[in-house]
What does this fold into?
Amino acid sequence: MTTRGFTGREPDAALRARIPPGQSATQDFPVLSSGPTPDVAPDDWSFTLKSGPKVIARWDWAEFNELSQSDLNCDIHCVTQWSKLDTAWRGVLIDDLLIAAGIEPPTPFALAHSVDGYSTNVPVADLLGGKAMIALRYDGKSLDPDHGSPARLLVPHLYFWKSAKWINGLQFTNRDEAGFWELRGYHMYGDPWREQRFTGDP
Ligand SMILES: Nc1nc2c(c(=O)[nH]1)N[C@H]1C(S)=C(S)[C@@H](COP(=O)(O)O)O[C@H]1N2
Ligand SMILES: [Mo]
It folds into this structure.
């Protein structure tokens, strides 16, 4: 009996250990956007890889779907203090995108660009090694428009504002250039485990 009570608490503790400081778990999937949800028809969408102003590669929707796809199961953490455990995504790892483009990363930093004018900066090292993808599917289905259809960046080990919805480009930059929220007081890196929410946080 005592053994059963002891083991019964273990899973809760294991789940709690996956919630970063200042966060609470939610079962919902809140929608957070700085503006209205853009209507992005896959046939009008393309994805452009750039180094500074120079175009390295471009894929239309059909071409992008031909790229090697992987599953990424992860926890996500929004700076507005919700975390969602065990989310299931499928898409093109940034590693596989670079292989398809036939390039090594030309600079140490990148900016993700979206159809709605949103942008966010991420060090290239945080996009490689299976850590990030251009997600095309969530929970076995194509993305919901509010969650970034047809494609969004997914960088789950950083706060979720780094996961640009409606993404249509990745640009390599020489310097770490602030994106939309980073220009408006959010942290340049955004590690949830270090609570890097705002400019000036450690
Ligand atoms: N293009 C775009 N991407 C975006 C945003 C946005 O306003 N525009 N909001 C960001 C923020 S602040 C968060 S917390 C997450 C929310 O993603 P969700 O709506 O799928 O939960 O998307 C991020 N990606
Ligand atoms: Mo956010």
